Structures are given as C-alpha cells and as structure tokens.
Amino acid sequence: MTTSPRKLKVATVSLAGCFGCHMSFLDIDERLFELVEHVEFDRSPLTDIKQVGHADIGLVEGGLCNAENVMVLREFRSHCKTLVAVGACAVNGGLPAQRNHLDLGRMLTGVYQGQPGLAAASLIPNDPELPLPLNQVHPIHEVVHVDYFLPGCPPSADAFWSFLTDLMAGRTPHLGHGLIHYD
Questions:
Q1: How far is CA 96 from CA 11, 65, 170, 180, in A?
Q2: Low-confidence residues of the chain: pLDDT under 70
Q3: Where are the domains of the chain?
C-alpha cells in the first residue's frame, strides 16, 4: 500500500493593503484544483478559517499601519515555517506608505475635523476597540523574518503559480521575465 505524500499547509493573511494580492492569487482559476492536490489551505479566503494553525507556507499581503497589524503578523509568523511577503505593501509599504511623509496627527485632524460638511463637534475616533495607528507604515520585514519576497502590485496569477510550484517542489522560487509587474 502506497501512501500519498503529505500535503503542504498554506495560510494567508491580509494586513494594511487592498486585498488585491489575494484576488490575484484567486485568479489562478482552474489551477486551484491542481493546487489543492498538493496543499491544504488553513487560514485563507478559500476556507474562512480565522485562526491560523501550523502552516508550511504563510503568505502575507499588506504592510503594517497599526498595532493590530503588528500583533497579527507576529502571531502569523510564529505559526509559519516559511513566510512570504506578497505584493508591494508587504515588501516595501506600498501605497499605504504614501502617508509616511505626513504628520499623522495633522492628517487625522484634517480628515476627521477639517473637512467641509462635518459636524462642528466632530472628533477623531478614539475608541479602545480601534487599533492604535503607527506613526509610519512599515513593510513586514522590519518586524519579522521574511523568507521570500513576491513583488508586484499585485503579483500576477502566473507569478503566484510559478512561485508556489517552485516552493512545493522544494526549489528556490525564480520569477522569470514577464512575471513581475506593477499595474
């Protein structure tokens, strides 16, 4: 009796980003059926599992803009054997980092108290349930060890496919010409 090889466990998380990397991942379309022959999904948009268990491969989309992002990332990293920064936001802060040259206090005041049409007594949200914003948006490698970087905004479905098939085969991922783009 032959036993089939153990499936790799894959988990994903989205932090401060637009969820575009997850959408691009789902764009591998029918190749998802081939992928599920080799992997088992833990936390991902395919499972709706909220807590991550042990994962062989963890895919992180989005940068770090608040304290909750940092906490989620550290917990996620502790459960993942191999961690991949996916997309420009995770790799270098991406579009959310465009606020890094602004003063956070002045920005919040301008948005919540200085816009036309707001009530005179409008306040900056200050509820203990809201995560504390960081003064700057950070890429994930500034907080945790990252094993691989999958650049792009977002990485294409073909880039995801190439990257994951290399990892599943035990190869160092290599993205050939035409697989990296920034739309």
A1: 23, 8, 33, 20
A2: 1-4, 181-183
A3: 8-100+134-168
